Amino acid sequence: MKDRIGVLYSGIHLFRDRLNLYYFPIFLFRRFWFIAIATLLYEHPFAQLQLLVFMSTMYLMFYGSSRPHESRFRIRMEIFNECMIMILNYHMLLFSGFTLARDYNFYFGYTFVLTAAVMTFVNLGFMINGNIKRHRMRVSLAHKKDSKKATMISNQGSFLKSLMQ
Predict the structure, then answer these.
(1) Phi, psi at residue 156, to the nearest 5°?
(2) Using CA atoms, how far apart are residues 165 and 156, in angstroms rounded to an integer?
(3) How confident is the model over 106-164, as pLDDT tens digits?
(4) C-beta separation of 102 from 45 below 8 A
(5) pLDDT in tens, 2-14
(6) Cα dist from 24 to 73, 156, 158, whole Å
(7) Would you tell me which of 44, 80, 91, 138 could form a disulfide with 112, CB atoms 3.0–4.6 Å apart?
């Protein structure tokens, strides 16, 4: 069984908290319900927004309390991304009919775009930085003639390659 689904739990700290075992099913369940809520409640946008904020809050509480990933960096990035998504969710509440101050929607749009841009650039920056570090490590190992480790580093994090093997 570990050979078949072990790759799903790579990077997950399974022994820190027993809830960590449920991280991937909760992650999939959340994605499924995001789509189902948007599809089933298309005539009730107020309910969509409230459930979106509620589910994001519940996931952030679960993730913050169980800290399922082994890497502190990964935990911090996930919490940062979820907080930014919560800010964007609150902006969607401001754009809806929940607020009476329609004059400010234009200004809320600036903060919405700024928040999305910060989230995008932070994630892109860390992805580019990680790829540069991996490339440098691979090149230095290739110069040392340790091709097996260099290949392992270049394939690190490749979920699809691990499924195909």
Answers:
(1) -60, 130
(2) 14
(3) 888 899 999 999 999 999 999 999 899 888 888 887 777 655 665 565 555 544 444 44
(4) no
(5) 566 666 667 777 7
(6) 18, 20, 17
(7) 91
Cα–Cα distance, 90 to 69 (Å, whole number): 27
DSSP character at residue 100: S
- Output the CA–CA distances (angstroms, integers) from residue 77 to 18, 62, 100, 106, 110, in the order listed: 22, 15, 35, 29, 24
Amino acid 15: pLDDT: 72
10 Å CB burial of residue 68 (0-12, 13-18, 19+) is buried
Q: Determine the Cα–Cα distance for residues 94 and 48; give it in Å rounded to an integer.
A: 14
Q: Quick one: which of 106, 105, 112, 110 has its CA closest to 90?
A: 112
